[in-house]
């Protein structure tokens, strides 16, 4: 009887694991379709059945991050990390969530900088008759200084976040590795990210107005019949959209040489 009981217990355990994995796979399918709420529901069912699997939490946390629910994504990332100290995606999810919460317009220094940029952009729209040549040059120089200052403040802000939130809790070797890539200047990365999705380009295309975007975002604009560049508001032609091979090559080089950065891209973070 004892052996029969064990066999029954093993069968039940396998059924439980199978059910939770089935929900995870269904969640992954919804994630690929961009249906993050549906994916969250599936991952939650998997967690309810088996709450000891780290990747269920990190996958669900990524969905929350996509929905900009950074408090939830942080909690799931931390839960994933506690369950599996080798789940670096859980660590990165925690950090990205905390940085996203902190690098917003509630930060006084960044808020002031962005207000200044908006103000200078407004000044540039004033009629020529209002501005003398010297005043125009003065405004241009001030705006340049503001734009140069912004990444420095953002970099220092990221550094403070790392030191305040993560240095006390992360093992030294992990902290140093993560800090190296979180605190560095973001300019190289920004050029490899779509300005609309804020993610690494997957299929970059350049449009006739001169800017490069993720192809799916341009397709969305065309479907909505909004043929204006989101950044410079110039009209673009839907027959003059070209694959940006140079940007794609740069991304491949960058992610090959800096795999830690690549692992933080939202496009590749799911565990299957």
From TrEMBL:
Its EC number is 2.3.2.27. Keywords: Repeat, TPR repeat, Transferase, Ubl conjugation pathway. GO terms for biological process: cellular response to misfolded protein; positive regulation of proteolysis; proteasome-mediated ubiquitin-dependent protein catabolic process; protein polyubiquitination; protein quality control for misfolded or incompletely synthesized proteins. The keyword Glycoprotein does not apply. This is RING-type E3 ubiquitin transferase. It catalyses: S-ubiquitinyl-[E2 ubiquitin-conjugating enzyme]-L-cysteine + [acceptor protein]-L-lysine = [E2 ubiquitin-conjugating enzyme]-L-cysteine + N(6)-ubiquitinyl-[acceptor protein]-L-lysine. The keyword Repeat applies. Gene3D superfamilies: Tetratricopeptide repeat domain, Zinc/RING finger domain, C3HC4 (zinc finger). One of its GO terms (cellular component) is cytoplasm. One of its GO terms (molecular function) is ubiquitin protein ligase activity. It comes from Stentor coeruleus. Residues 191-254 form the U-box domain. TPR repeats lie at residues 20-53. InterPro entries: TPR-like_helical_dom_sf, TPR_rpt, Ubox_domain, Znf_RING/FYVE/PHD. Pfam families: TPR_11, U-box.
